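Form 7-S
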Amino acid sequence: MSGTALINNLIPTADVVKRAARIGAEIRNIKLSGELPHQTIAAINSVLLEHKVIFFRDQGHLDDAGQERFALRLGKLMPPMGPVTNGTTSVRKVDSTGAFYRADAWHTDLAFFDAYPKITMLRGVVIPAFGGDTVWSNTAAAYLDLPPQLQHLADELWAVHSNAFDSAVIARISEADKKYWDEVMTRTIYETEHPVVRVLPETGERALVLGNYVQHFVGIEKYDGQRLFDLFQSHVTAPENTVRWNWKEGDVAIWDNRATQHYGVNDYGEQRRVACRVTIEGEVPVSVHGQCSVTRVKATRQSPENVA
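Output:
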C-alpha cells in the first residue's frame, strides 16, 4: 500500500497533493507532533520516500522543542554545526541576518560527511513579504534522465566532497560571513570520497551525489572534471526535476537529503527570513558496486592563539 493510501486510511481528513510530476507533495489536514501514532509516522516516511520532499502548512503550534520531538520520530538526530536554540539539542536557527544563511547554491546538506543526513526538516518562523522560496531537485529522477552511456559512466565515478573551499571566492561574502565560515564551518575540515551514484537502501533507486561541496572527481583532471560535473549537474537542476515552495509562517518542509539537492532563492533583499532546521542521521552511501564512501580527511585546525 502506498504512503498516500496509508495516510488516508489512518487520517481520513488528510489529503496528499502532488506539487510537481517528479518531486514534491503537500500533506494537508495533519497536525505534526511527537505523539503521532507509529503507523502515521510510517506513512509519512513512505510518502517522503516516494516524493522526496513533503510539505505541511499551518504547523504554527510547533515550537523548537515540539519540532525536535517530532523529528525524533523520524530517526536519530544529528548535532548541528554551531549553536542550537534554547532548550534543544539539535534545532539550529537559520537566520538571514546571520552569517552564511542565504544558501543560494545547489547543495545536499553536509555532504562532506561520510554518513551525511538522511532527512532534513525545516520550519518557517519569520517569512519575508516577498521572495525567499526554496527549490528542490530529485537527483534520482536526474539519474534516470541520463542516456544509458552516461549512466554507466556516472556509476563508475567517485567525487571528493569537502567543506574546505575558500570562502573568500564566494560572491557577495561579508566579513562576518568569512569569520563564521573560518571559525565554525571549517574549524574542522572534512574530506570524503562519495560515489557519484549511490543506491538508496529502502527503494533500490540510484541517485546522483553532487552539489557545491564537490571539489573534484577522483582520477580526473580538474579541467575535464568540471565539464563532467556541469553535465551531470545540469540534469539535476533541469526544471522538470524540481519543485518550488513559497513559504508561509508555520510551514514545515521535510526532504530526503540523500535523493535531493536544494537551493534557497536569494530574492528577498534586506528582509529577514528565519527558519529552524533539524537533521536526521543517515547511513554511509553505497555505490552500485557495493563500495562504501570513505573519509579521507578529518582534521581540526588550530586557532591562532594556540599556534606558537
